[in-house]
Amino acid sequence: MKEGNKLWARDELILALNLYLKLPFGKMHSRTPEIMHLANLIDRTPNSVAMRLTNFASVDPFHQQRGVKGLEGGKKQVQPIWNEFINNRDELLFESEKILAAKEHTVIENKYAEALQGTENMKGEDKFREVKTRVNQNVFRQIVIANYAGKCAITGIDIPDLLIASHIIPWSKSEQERLNPENGICLSPLYDRAYDKGYIGINEDFEILLSPRLKEKHTLEYHAKHFAVLTETKINLPQRYHPKKEFLQYHMDTVFRR
Description:
The protein is mainly α.
């Protein structure tokens, strides 16, 4: 059967969604190494995989709102997978990583060995939940960093080891939104910690605010160097999923130190 007539299986579509979420929109072409890698894993051409990614763009509300339609030919095939992701991100992301590991002839425990350190002696349901949580946190990080083109939204730092996928609504506060790309901001460690602890906030206009608790330190050198410079500035917005304004307001109402 020619590749062009070969129907896409559910597992292949899930892998395409996994890659769609991890790639910056400008890299969804057949020459992208990640696309070529997936094509090799599922015995497809890079052009075929790239086309499936643009199919996902056609059902992504973010691109629909921008008037970017993507390629709609395969819309009916990808829409159910997209809906499944939106309704149950926790399950589908983990499933996608298990499928990907199997295609790469390994297992989750090996693929994410560093992230799963300390789970070796856990057993049963406790281990399954912990492994799933850590894997999904890692995937969320990949998605958020790709969304911000690999740069801190405040400093522009582009060293992956120095970037963190910060949650707007904390992980523990909303199971439904913890893996939503609109609930993530790519930050370097200092500003991730300051945001997480409420010393800085981001309002619905994406402006950076300093908490009164932080302003008390205005006479100190570190304040002028790292925080005063943020006054009346905005975060650099990502390529696709802007921070959801309702989430930003939740953080201002419940985390920001007044």
